[in-house]
Amino acid sequence: MVEDRRTILEMGVRAALKLATDEPWADLTLAQIADGAGIPLEQFHGVANKDTIADSVERYFDRAMSEGSFDEEEMPRTRLFDVIMMRFEAMEDYRPGLLSLMKWRQSQPLRLMNLIAARQASADWALVCAGLDSSEGLPKPVKATGVAWAIAQAERAWRKEESADLSRTMAALDGELRKMEERASWITGRRRKKSADSPSEAAEARDETSPEQAE
Questions:
Q1: Number of other CB atoms surrounding residue 81 within 10 Å
Q2: Residue 39: phi, psi to the nearest 5?
Q3: pTM score, two decimals?
Q4: What is the pLDDT of residues 71-127, one digit of tens each?
Q5: Which of 89, 106, 99 is nearest to 20 (CA)?
């Protein structure tokens, strides 16, 4: 007998995704999912239904991002790329079921609304796993919004992926993270100081000021 709510949800997610390989997600029933998970249907009562399981899929794959480690000497963009790609690599084992879920989810407004929050949570965890969850630079919610967008765009590429090495997905993710690097200094670890700490820095700051700004 399984009593832990998280375990029941995770077993339900795995079972549902495997079943959705051969049967459209829309046609699955909770009874089928419970049977596939090897759990009595009664244990899902008050714990999860089909919609709850669908909403738990994103969180299930988020866990893959914390299975590795990072080198503090690596650029933040590289760290983020590595942990997020671990997530997509984990998703590969369930590709047919995930594509079935994603297709069904497009016709479910509430599921799509919940996906927005789930995507933000994925981004938050990616920052944690990459060691970038400090308060330095931009506020964390702002950072997470950018990372969430990058994950979403990479997922669009993943849906169309045809290469075993996930080259399309990697290219999309790398491209989005590079755009972030260009637009926000927090991802590179470089920040312009509000005031110069030395005469040379003060001189540089004056040199960078245009005549129009000086006026």
A1: 22
A2: -120, 135
A3: 0.81
A4: 777 888 999 999 999 999 999 999 999 999 999 999 999 999 999 999 999 999 999
A5: 99
